[in-house]
Write a sequence for this structure.
């Protein structure tokens, strides 16, 4: 795969690419704090998006899908609220989501279908459009190229910290282009309050089909390869706006370089979500090798990453390789015990059909760290997959048992 | 379905049916307590069994499958140890499992293939045959028709209490027959120490094909319909021995009555496992209705029962119906939000496309109990499924994070 001739991680988020401004204000949807984010491209941008596969798609998801279809993949702005998911809210909820877009479009002087909408927070509670209408003028006034971090804060719910990422890259031409993004967690989904949202901008000019293809590919190995609690929400979405302000055009010859840069932004945001998962104390990288197929490798890696027994063992610093073998064996994939292997932190615990208990103390020491690599070889082929998760702590139970009390 | 003309729950377990004796002794495999169980039929019994689908099947599972095949489904005894799963132990482990059966067979004077073997405990640790050889004479001497509860204790690992069940039933003839059973948890599987094992006896005479068919049917709606943590171990098995000592014969005309009685024993044992799940404080019955098919109903019910967010919400007494809708929506089944419904304790929380928040206080009060019914209508058909699970507590994390430390 041809790569970017230069790929450089830089600070900032959605307003690092040229021609984007953002704002984060308080609309009174949450009890306190910023809860309304506005992201605006100075000119019409090409837009791509991926949405939750949950069959109970929330109103903002349905409206954004409709707007992308009607605009032919063109967007001027994204308006996002936290504190209320506007999900399971019926026709009234749809009217609110449409109203959010219409009000924003009116303020910007663009067609309503060029505004995308997202919400995150409690399911089944009505979102008050009047609160958003009152706060929108303030958000319009606050719009700035230096306000990306305010927007990143306004989309947070239980997230312990905001997630921003940006890269500068060059595809071989004279000018550089930039990709920036922001995201929130803090679960793969916690549908009451922690919907996963991602918003990415770039000042490259990218034809819509190529933009959508790149987004799908990047999301597949990043946002779709993380799990905090195995839940997929009613509101998940990742949106990508490309406005061409850099003068850099992406075509099929520079696609791979663009994808590499986009993947870097998505990965940083996705890992931020895992690191900030509810109750998380460790980031766990699960790599499955020796699989009969890529699909099976991903399935096994996800099964391991969602295993309560694996997540609690790593939380407790226990080099419990038997739990990893047992999950691999029940994951519904080709698995050959006599050729299987388990290592943690590149230290073998099981290989060649036998335990390596002599390495237990070294692995126990390694598990005291906060970034944990786990590898399982299925002994059944050559395909691989990597996914990311976090440990499971008593704090996770506390957060989710006591949320509304 | 024709039912038993009488079906009566009675006390006791595996030795309630005539012609069965049991013992539970200490072989020194666990640090302390009973850890070797022996279950013997006075004469050869017809045997049926179901085993884990985990691809890393433990040595005792492989040996028992082999013995059932070679004996043509006849067994005299089952020998079980706790404290060591004899899993991932290679050829040496197979030799130990075979040795357990051979030693028991020698003491009973029967062919080795008429002895079934089961183990539960830590994965990847060698089981010392010498300990079992030393304890077997003691177990043989202790065998008694009043020792079923000793055997039920000897198969426990982290189980908070032993699980026994028995029923007396009549299929229309003059004599009654009895079914008894014992089981251990305390997870659907915790492969380090909580493998699920079930052992059932009956003094009815049942042809092997009918016995196997009844066991599969009963297990499907009981043991296979429970989950504590979504894990399937390397050692799971349920074995059923029918020795005919009651003189009651089961044939196709009385099959349904026998199945009803068998299901009652399996259900009581299975619910005991869930109630005694690691860290559990509540037994949760999840019923899915309105599904497009039975397979999808089961899939949705299992997804709900394994959802960390559902289990923590119920642990915290939170009437959080949005989490139930979100899981149903992501479960990969037909789901129609506008016709879906959620109720807890038969009290509606979501129906006809809208929340019933007026019922929240009543449901919150109901959730203070220890037996919780949750119903979700998918709005997509007429099929139903019921599964059982427990809540997820901080104590679960503590047990599994600190197990080996």
């Amino acid at each position: 795969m041809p790569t970017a001739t230069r790929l450089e991680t830089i600070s900032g988020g959605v307003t690092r690419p040229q021609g984007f401004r953002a704002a984060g204000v308080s609309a009174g949807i949450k009890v306190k704090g910023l809860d309304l984010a506005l992201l605006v491209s100075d000119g019409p941008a090409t837009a791509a998006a991926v949405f939750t596969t949950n069959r109970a798609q929330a109103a903002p998801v349905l409206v954004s899908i409709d707007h992308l279809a009607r605009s032919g993949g063109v967007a001027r702005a994204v308006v996002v609220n936290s504190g209320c998911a506007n999900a399971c809210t019926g026709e009234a909820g749809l009217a609110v989501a449409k109203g959010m877009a219409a009000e924003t479009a009116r303020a910007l002087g663009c067609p309503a279908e060029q505004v995308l909408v997202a919400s995150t927070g409690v399911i089944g509670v009505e979102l008050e459009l009047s609160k958003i209408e009152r706060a929108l003028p303030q958000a319009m006034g606050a719009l700035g190229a230096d306000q990306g971090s305010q927007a990143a804060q306004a989309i947070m719910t239980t997230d312990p910290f905001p997630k921003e990422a940006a890269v500068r890259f060059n595809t071989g031409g004279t000018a550089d282009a930039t990709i920036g993004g922001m995201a929130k967690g803090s679960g793969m989904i916690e549908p009451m309050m922690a919907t996963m949202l991602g918003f990415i901008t770039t000042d490259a000019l990218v034809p819509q089909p190529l933009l959508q293809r790149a987004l799908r590919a990047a999301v597949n190995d990043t946002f779709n390869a993380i799990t905090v609690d195995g839940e997929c929400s009613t509101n998940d979405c990742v949106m990508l706006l490309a406005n061409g302000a850099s003068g850099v055009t992406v075509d099929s010859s520079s696609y791979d370089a663009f994808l590499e840069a986009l993947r870097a932004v998505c990965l940083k945001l996705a890992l931020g979500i895992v690191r900030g998962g509810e109750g998380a104390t460790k980031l766990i990288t699960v790599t499955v090798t020796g699989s009969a197929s890529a699909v099976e490798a991903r399935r096994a890696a996800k099964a391991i990453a969602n295993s309560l027994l694996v997540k609690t063992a790593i939380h407790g610093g226990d080099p419990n390789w038997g739990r990893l073998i047992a999950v691999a064996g029940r994951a519904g994939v080709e698995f050959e015990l006599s050729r299987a292997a388990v290592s943690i932190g590149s230290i073998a615990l099981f290989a060649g059909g036998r335990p390596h208990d002599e390495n237990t103390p070294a692995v126990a020491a390694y598990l005291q760290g906060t970034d944990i690599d786990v590898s399982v070889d299925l002994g059944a082929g050559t395909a691989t997959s990597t996914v990311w998760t976090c440990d499971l702590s008593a704090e996770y139970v506390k957060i989710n048992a006591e949320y509304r009390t």
